[in-house]
Design brief:
- It is a single chain.
- This protein has eight helices and six strands.
- With 248 residues, it is α/β, with parallel strands linked by helices.
- It has one domain: HUPs (Rossmann fold, 3-Layer(aba) Sandwich), CATH 3.40.50.620.
- A six-stranded mixed sheet has the order 3-2-1-4-6-5.
- Strand 2, helix 5 and strand 3 form a beta-alpha-beta unit.
- The structure holds iron/sulfur cluster (SF4).
Amino acid sequence: MTLAELQRLAPAEIRSLNERFESASPQEILGWADERFGMDLALMSSFGLEDVALFDMFWRINPKARIMTLDTLRLPTETYTVMDRVRARYETEIEAFTPDSEAVSEMVRDRGYNLFYMSIENRKLCCQIRKVNPLNRALSGLGAWITGLRRDQGMARGTINIIEWDEVHKNYKINPLANWTFDQVREYVVTKNVPYNELHDQGYPSIGCAPCTRSIQPGEDLRAGRWWWETDPNAKECGLHIVEKAAR
Ligand code: SF4
């Protein structure tokens, strides 16, 4: 049993915190999480606009704030650039989790380098090996993790709570930006001069791996640029964020 399980909050306590945090700022939520979980807490970052804004807030609360990332080894150059800028600006170490090299070699040997364009099954396998498995490793030692999910990103994200028990990883998932809009995030980044991914200036609201992300046109859904060749709009998740309702 993990420490987080031993220290698990009662469902009524989570409900009450969620009610309280509905009108709280992201900084208040981060402050509570920092106090409750200390160094057992980390931001899981893909270095999109939400994540760099959150890390700036988190770092201002705790200069030793932990930041983790999943380096799929297929990220755009611009993402590695912003990672370097974040490291320099905050003098912080980024805890990067990479895929198992043997699993990647076998997958590529069997199905090709760009297997994800050929079928949803292939795409899910690639996401499993390059993202989900490293995420499981990253989260195995944490009491809680912070995400940049927002409700207005749609799909399953529309119903997230600010604090959720993550049954898959047996820890807490904290979504301080659940109530924020993209414009609020952008304003924070501009106001605080936070380093951000230059692809956001080229029509990319959401940035993942290079071969699986494109820019979007005005009026398109914010996640339309992810796995754009797939036609099912409800399939635009990679398995990193399974919303767990049990702890509401
Ligand atoms: Fe593979 Fe694309 Fe998923 Fe990245 S987003 S892990 S390249 S399928």
